[in-house]
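Work Package 3 (structural annotation) set out to generate three-dimensional models for the target panel prioritized at the project kickoff. During this period the team completed the workflow that converts sequence records into discrete structure tokens, so that structures can be stored uniformly alongside our sequence database. As a representative example, we reproduce one entry of 279 residues exactly as it appears in the project archive.
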Amino acid sequence: MPAFSHIVLQTPAYFRLTLCATSHGWVNLAPFSYSADDEILFRTEQIGNSTYTIGMSQTGSNLHVKITPKLSSTRLKTIKQRILHSLSFDFPIKEFAKHSRNLSKHIYKGLQEGYAYFLRGFTPFEDAVKTLLTTNCSWAYTKKVSQSICLKYGNQAIGGTYAFPSLVKLKALREREFREIGMGYRSRYIESLCKHFVNKNIRHENWLGFGAYASAHFNFLLGVYDRIPVDREVCRYLKIPYDSQSFNSVNAMYSKWGPYKFLAYKIERRLRNENWIGN
């Protein structure tokens, strides 16, 4: 009996794993890693008290997933659901294709090439925590603390990598413990964030620490693309000042895209080979 499980998933239209994996900086945050040479996306994932390493690769329209060690059918179903979420298989590609075809042949071409899919964490909770770790800081800080939270509180897999810690684990911590791994002033925000998810409240507009940028950033990770999360990098690319008016001015530039502002902005950047993923 093999020591691993293998599943094959049918990919949605225009999906390319290598482009989804490298869509933004998440690929460079633990517990993700990516082999550009082999075009394999790796992930360490925890279910209950068990931890698994996952390797994802694409051949044609098939996504091949290898999970080590072998797991039960129930847990395999859970992993499958998380993968479908993480790779944005739920993205309404036909709806966006119709929208972009009418607005820009350039963006529509990018959609056809595979640029419309974005990498997410395996859960919205992970994405919310990591979003908070991108606010008012350097990318080096974001990478360091993302790694620290996995090493300190995530379960270790057989190969030595660590999973992102569960909500159950993090909700038991207090502000002092978050500060010990370098979260600084965000520590009380993380503690509050855990309470929101325990209460199944993901109406994040009023969460502590979630201003316009963080709210828009978390939105696109939920599959809502109507706002561009504006930071210094966005303003550098667009060659405009980064100030109190930048959020509104950037979003006004892409207003014709309505619910797809962020997608239009990102696809445009990627077609110009000016995407930034922090590697």
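The chain has a mean pLDDT of 95.
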